[in-house]
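User: Predict the complex with S-adenosylmethionine.
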Amino acid sequence: MPGLHLVATPIGNLGDITLRGLWILRNADRILCEDTRVTGRLLARYGIAVPLEPYHDHNAERARPGILERLRRGERLALVSDAGTPLVSDPGFKLVREALAESLPVSVAPGPSAAIAALALSGLPPDAFLFAGFLPSRQGPRRRALGTWRSVAATLIFFEAPSRLAASLADMAETLGDRDAAVARELTKRHEEMRRGRLTQLAAHYRAAGAPRGEIVVVVAPPPAGGSAEAEDDAGIERRLRDALAGATLHDAVVRVADETGLARREIYRRALALRAQGRAR
Ligand code: SAM
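Assistant: Here is the predicted structure with S-adenosylmethionine placed in the model:
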């Protein structure tokens, strides 16, 4: 089995690794990992003694040529991340792409991912879903990113840091509308918790309770079916624009509504000019 083998590792409970994943790790020449201490603990649990080599955001550019050279020589390399599926908000994409470009063998031993575990437990529609990774940490870019997902007819899945959870939930409510949602915390670990409710309720809870401990996934229901969400959104945007234009310059009103809704300033500007032309705003 020469080649690069992507192996999913547990997201909490160390028992959650597949038998095939363990077999690949045991028989690899070398295991590429984010943090040798984290992966070392997993290997120790299963009595696996294979050399570890760091491959993470800070050394990937430097390390990749040597790794590709070893793959060309026919070595068996496994790639794991600290937890879950490699490449899912974790390192590995460029390595896979470059290996594939040279027709070097790449395989995957699938297993846990926090995104899928949270979706399964959320109680929200699983038939169509969109994993959006981490949102930007600053409010303006975060709302703009949320705006790009607003009309997607699918359940949305986000990773989020505890310190930003309350603010992000509030921005989701503002930008996506007050949808049903679920906050998954510490999945498969001792303090696992799933909190379900409307986005505004969840935002109020975490604003009052303070930043929770541990790791978090937010799952948000799709917009209401039948396109009514878009129509409501249009009415909502018009209302926001009229309010904003009543007390601010055109430029400031456009910036404010773009930040509130996550829509592009160009689009809001176009709508503001249309409102004015129709005499429905100052
Ligand atoms: N590749 C991983 C996967 O497939 O699950 C995700 C890696 S990403 C760097 C780490 C993020 O995943 C955390 O910040 C959190 O949002 C989420 N996460 C990981 N483990 C989790 C858990 N046990 N419970 C809830 N969220 C988790």
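The CA atoms of residues 155 and 222 lie 5 Å apart.
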